[in-house]
Amino acid sequence: MIGKAWYPIFLREMLLFRRQLLRISYLFSAMLIPIIYLLTFGLGLGGMVQIKGTDYLNYLIPGLVSLTSMMNSYTWVANALNLNRLYFKNFQVFIQAPIQPSAIMIGEVLAGMVKGLFASGLILIVGFITTRNLSITPLFVPTLLLNCFLFSSLGVITGMITKSHEDTATYNNFFILPMAFFSGTFFPVERIPQPLQAVVWAFPLTHANILIRENSIDLYALISLVVLVLYAIVFFVIGSRLIRDYSE
Amino acid sequence: MIEVTGLTKQYGTIKALDNLSFRVERGSVFGLLGPNGAGKTTTIKILTTLSKPDGGRAFIAGYDVVEDSVAVKRLMGVMPQDNNLDRELTAYENLLIYSMLYDVPDRETKIRWCLDLVDLWARRNELLMRFSGGMQRRLLIARALLTEPSVLFLDEPSIGLDPQIRRQLWDIIRKTRIEGRTVVITTHYIEEAEALCDHVGILNKGVLIALDTPDNLKATLGEYIVEFVNDEGKLIQQMCKDREEANNLVLCQDCEVRIRKTNLEDVFVRLTGERIE
Questions:
Q1: For residues A244 and A101, is the Cβ–Cβ distance under 8 A?
Q2: Is the pTM of this model over 0.90?
Q3: Are A11 and B100 in contact (CB under 8 A)?
Q4: B193-203 burial, b for 16+ CB within 10 Å, e for fewer?
Q5: Which residues contact residue B111 at a Cβ distance below 8 angstroms, ignoring those fewer than 6 apart?
Q6: Hey, which bits of chain B come out as E strands?
Q7: Can you list the alpha helix ranges (DSSP code H) found in A22-171?
Q8: Distances in Å between the alpha carbon of A127 and those of A52, A54, A60, A177?
Q9: In chain A, what residues touch B74 (CB-CB under 8 Å)?
């Protein structure tokens, strides 16, 4: 029975998160990179650029929100699991408890989503302060939730397969960082050279960036939605199986 | 209560467990004694579902630890060798999360009972990072008892503890045994195995090399050991079946001689030619 078995795992993360929030370093690290991007690309270059007939800031901020949700959902889950598994050994407690592996997965993913949504909310607040024309589309919130779910699940996968804390940084450098820059956060994917576009279209963040700016579900948005949902399911299933097959 | 048959586990080229078999009766205290790297923790990890064996099977109360792992988990409490408490949570929060994972009824009462047992109720709202190592070990055993388990696994429970705290821990383990729980304890402390265990299995390099009661194991050597340093400066140990034989041996020596009772370390040395610690 999964039932409420996920709740203690979620609650543990929230109790830890509440204490992290009291430290200035947490807020700083959650917001630092997106704010730097906002200042550099948005406020620095924004006045000189228009994309798809709109102010650059209006284009950039939804992208920064999906970027922030990705980075925070993914990084906090991957790092926490990695540390809990390899260094603090807290993960043993979950494995030895009489609960299903999917309950551990749900608890970790929901906690990752909360962290991703929190950091995204902060960026959104900054966005509303810096531009008056920022519009939130109807697909904004569902996309944000889906993106957080997807990247939290991916964080579980990374947290479960890494053999050292350094490994997590390697995955960040090879997968997360390129995704952050080339997935349509700062400029449309169509501007990327054709041969690279095939890779970029395979990135989940590309589809999150498309969907988060859409007003309604047209064919273009529908494809992105399907891709995101498929990624979310696949990552969730793989993460659950890695937990199920865990052995020290 | 526990039945282990032909358990094997390999890490790379190292055979951590080699065809390990033993039984533990319900309500008894079973000790696995051996040096670091003997395979004690690997055994506990398999029995507590943390590690999957490469071969062999293990049952707890008739449940297979691999195939019926959730049923096994409901029966057991674990005090691990590594401190896996959350240092950024309070003592109370640690036990609260644990009690929720095991769906413990009447949580508040049980948490209070456990914290009282280890004299930590007054400090329940302090973060663990402010607790001493001994306090954290006490909280670990309290957590293991929170679910009132039928089987208690204690992996090197008194490692790093000062003698006074170690005695307190032993008292808790003895009380647990009186309550009818089965206890499996790993240790490399001779006196701990002798003080607590009904049966002791001696592990060396993944192989169970002896298994019996502490008294029977020691009886294979004799009750006393006479120690003296010979002319070449080498420590000589002679086993004697009783005090009379030991006294007679002492009379034959013209150097300083010491008589002492045999212990499980002597058994280990006799079986392996090496010391435990």
A1: yes
A2: no
A3: yes
A4: bbbbbebbbbb
A5: B92, B95, B96, B99, B124, B146
A6: 2-11, 14-24, 29-33, 55-60, 63-64, 76-79, 151-155, 182-187, 199-204, 207-212, 224-229, 235-240, 257-261
A7: 24-37, 56-86, 91-96, 101-130, 140-161, 165-171
A8: 19, 15, 9, 22
A9: 98
Q: Give the position of tokens 């055993």.
A: B141
pLDDT-derived band at B183 (thresholds 50, 70, 90) equals very high
Burial class (CB in 10 A: 0-12, 13-18, 19+), A204: buried
Q: Give yes or no for B58 touching A (CB within 8 A).
A: no
Query: Which of A15, A88, A96 has the CB atom closest to B49's CB atom?
Result: A96
**Which ipTM did the prediction report?**
0.88
User: For the sheet containing B76-79, what is the strand order?
Assistant: B76-79, B151-155, B182-187, B29-33, B199-204, B207-212
pLDDT tens-digit readout, B38-93: 899 999 999 999 999 999 999 999 999 999 999 999 999 999 988 999 999 999 99
Q: Is the pLDDT of residue B161 over 90?
A: no
Instruction: Take residue B46 and report the two structure tokens written for it.
Output: 């398999």
Q: Which residue has the higher pLDDT, A55 or A125?
A: A125
> Which amino acid is located at B81 in the chain?
Q
* Residue of B50, B51, B88 with shortest CB distance to A16: B88
| Helices A140-161 & A101-130 angle (0-180, nearest 10) | 130
Q: How far apart are CA A241 and CA A246, in angstroms?
A: 8
Q: What are A81's two structure tokens?
A: 């699991």
Residues 6+ apart with CB under 8 A from B123: B91, B131, B135
